[in-house]
Structures are given as C-alpha cells and as structure tokens.
Write a structure and sequence with these properties.
Rossmann fold; 6-stranded parallel beta sheet; globular; alpha/beta; 6 strands
Length: about 180
C-alpha cells in the first residue's frame, strides 16, 4: 500500500536525522546486526505507532533489517516530523503520518496501518489496542501481541485485562525497570 505523508521531497533531511541518531544507539545497532543476520522477523508485519521522530524511526529501520514488513504511524499528530516520515518511506518502510493532522486523519492513518493485519504492534498511548478491541477486531487475525510504552496506554491495558477483555498478550514497557532508569525517575 502506498504511504500517506506530507512531502517525499523532505526525505534527504529525514534520512540524515535517522542516520545521525544511529550513531548514539549502540544497543539497537547490536540488535539490528543480530536481527539482520538471523532474519528474526522474516514474514512478520509489525505496526509501529509512536511519536514519529528520528529515534523511533531508527527503531523501525532496525525491525526492517530483521526482515519485517514495518508499517509506521504517528501516535501524536503534533510530534510527527514530516522529514523523518519521508526518510522512512525513502528507506522502504510504509508510513501513514504527517504533522498536525486532524483527528479524522489520525484515525484514518491508524486504520490504514491496521489494514496490514499485523503480527506484532508497538503502541504508544493505546489507540491501536483500543481499535483492535472495538472497530478493528478484523485486524487481529494474525496478531501475536505487542508492547505499550506509556503510562496512559498501560492503564488502558490494565482496564481491559481487569474486565477480562484483553484478547492478546502485551508487554507493559512503562512498567519495566529499564524504562524507569532511563525515563521515569
């Protein structure tokens, strides 16, 4: 499916940002080398809904190196960087996002991403998980599970779990000790 981004002409600047951050992510670099050698995600579709900027874009490229078909969308219309989105498209990833999209466009992008019927999701805020439990249950047919980064998203997961409605496994990244050390203290 064709990406929906603001301007592909911004790709060179976006790639420059993604390349620059890669120099400061030794753990992801090591994982990328391993994923590439082992083709860890070959045949898998991964939908990534995150604040779309260079650091998270680099994560998406690492997953692609591992053989995944990676679909990226923004988790917040005001944090999406159009040059980074274009850079990802130029690198062969599918992207549905642009800066300052409307609420209608935002949910259109999430739904376009879910049209790819992911095996794995990486969610930030819980909107993908919410859609998969409401209007997009059809997109769960291949879903193995995923991860959620934020406090808000994890609270949404616990609410689903407590109501016995969470239908696939999720990793609550926000609750990990490692995230606490880097982000939450």
């Amino acid at each position: 499916m064709q990406s929906l981004i603001k301007d592909i002409n911004l790709a060179a600047e976006g790639r420059k940002k993604i390349d620059w951050v890669s120099n400061f992510m030794p753990t992801l670099n090591t994982l990328g080398d391993r994923f590439e050698a082992e083709q860890t995600f070959k045949g898998q579709t991964i939908v990534v809904s995150v604040h779309l900027e260079a650091k998270t874009a680099y994560l998406a490229t690492v997953l692609k190196r591992g053989g995944a078909d990676v679909i990226v969308t923004g988790s917040n219309p005001l944090s999406t960087q159009d040059d980074v989105a274009a850079g990802l498209v130029d690198m062969g990833l599918t992207v549905y996002a642009w800066y300052d999209c409307t609420e209608e466009e935002y949910f259109h992008f999430l739904n376009k991403a879910l049209d790819h019927k992911p095996h794995i999701i990486i969610d930030d805020g819980g909107d993908l998980v919410n859609l998969l439990h409401t209007t997009r249950q059809d997109a769960k047919e291949r879903l193995l599970g995923g991860s959620e980064e934020t406090t808000t998203g994890v609270h949404r997961l616990y609410a689903l779990e407590n109501a016995k409605q969470l239908t696939f496994p999720m990793i609550a990244v926000n609750d990990s000790y490692c995230k606490y050390l880097f982000d939450n203290r």
